[in-house]
Design brief:
The protein contains 15 helices and 16 strands. By secondary structure, the chain is of the alpha/beta class. It folds into two domains: about 180 residues, Aspartate Aminotransferase, domain 1 (Alpha-Beta Complex); about 250 residues, Type I PLP-dependent aspartate aminotransferase-like (Major domain) (Aspartate Aminotransferase, domain 2, 3-Layer(aba) Sandwich). It has a seven-stranded mixed beta sheet, with helices on both faces. The protein has a four-stranded mixed beta sheet with strand order 1-2-3-15. The two termini are about 15 Å apart.
Length: about 450
Amino acid sequence: MQSEQKRFIDERPKSKALFERARKSLLGGVPMNWMSKWAGAFPPFVGEAHGAEFLDVDGHRYIDFCLGDTGAMTGHSPSATVAAVQQQVARGITLMLPSEDAVWVGEELRRRFGLPYWQFALTATDANRFSIRLARQITSRPKILVFNWCYHGSVDETFITLENGVSKMRRGNVGAPVDPSVTTKVVEFNDVAALEKALQSGDVACVLAEPAMTNVGIVHPDAGYHEQLRQLTHIHNTLLIIDETHTICAGPGGYTRANNLDPDFLVFGKPIGGGVPGATYGFTRTVADAIAAHQNLEDCDVGGIGGTLAGNALSLAAMRATLEKVLTQKAFDRMIPLAERWAAGVEKAIAEFDVPWHVTRLGCRAEYLFSRNRPRNGSQAHDAMDFELERFMHLHAMNRGILLTPFHNMALMSPATEQEHIDRHSRVFREALNVLVT
């Protein structure tokens, strides 16, 4: 690790100088605190990014498998989105009025996901927050339910975990406005009995779930789990919110369409605008009717739902171009086999060096975890994580021109990813294992 850190610093004098300059005006030398988590002594400062690659200010070119942690899953600056944004900027950026693009995007979301009504936000965090508020209003219930080690952006209610079967505030929860155990129930993913027990008291407004967990390594649902989840939420009159922000990697209609799920709400953020901030949440006709029954026109702007920039013209133009021309079935037909190739390359090296790791894939997303057995829930996945080992693997890769997401060992394929990008990662991954084992 010391050798890799020295190489990183020595080869990036311009990034180092910018970082030192940034520390005088930016907290921690970065514009957003997550950027402190990169494995180097400082993050590489970006010069420009196109497709599946970017160039840092020191002239190093990187294959980007992080892709903005899904925000740039379309590839950097896809031409169709860039053209639409350029045209819309000249026509107007934000007006707090609808555009034809909004109608087109709503119709396309309805076609892809099967839910009839849609609204827009700037982030999936906001879309999740709004959906939770609406669920509480509709059901007149105070609590929500999430899965242990879930991730749904910075939604206050979700920073909760289980320790020895007891709900606790998750470590690192900054300035929590209320202990999440007051607002939230938490159970393990794939534990049907625990889910049923938590719903029986009749105080849960909604279950908020990724259809497969993705932010603690990939954790797939057991066979039949989603059918049981939907059945139990129906029985206990609890609404079901499916967060597809990461699991859109499963296909153009996300995990929901690929596996015929039946949510009451669906949230989709990050990549929908090709990197331009935007998110959406959809819901059933029954939910729409319930929202309308509670709606008060005089107070609709002060109820905690929406925002001045939500549904702005620039975001909607970017969404339309991205959905119509970038995140298409043709793109996924290319991206998913590349993820299969990436996983196969990692699996081959794991077998060669007989390390107790495994690799898991979901659509065009794949990652390796430091355990021999695949986890069935968040606790098992979290227990398999090793922060220092992750940092070594990421820094070793970054020094050789490959970027993985800094939060875990995730690789994402974009429409611009090439087979050679995959094969280069396989070679670098094998080199890292050789260093560790020998």
